[in-house]
What we know:
CATH topology of the domain at 3-66 and 98-109: hypothetical protein PF0899 fold
Amino acid sequence: MHELSIASAIVATVERHAGGSPVTVVRVRVGRLRQVVPDSLEFCFGMVARESVCEGARLELEVVPAVLRCAACEHEWEIEAPPFWCPECAGGDVAAVRGEELEVESIEIEQEESACIART
Length: 120
């Protein structure tokens, strides 16, 4: 299950950027070609987040569709599963345009309420 190592990397990335503040939301973009099972990643994130700035944070996943481009005819198409050949010209020289992403897009940090003292 590679979701555990991905969850660990997400938490490590967030910890580097959160400045020690508790995090409430972590937004991640993950490409379909990464073959991540969203439910498994969410479960692993919850485990790895314990006793870190991410403890209790909500993980929001955006799954990016896999899009390939044919080198011969430059046709682009979205795929769900192999085979990876061009549906237009049957060429086999294709490359991923989208779908390999694995990015922490943003984090939301818990804001402490500041005390306001009114003087009259």
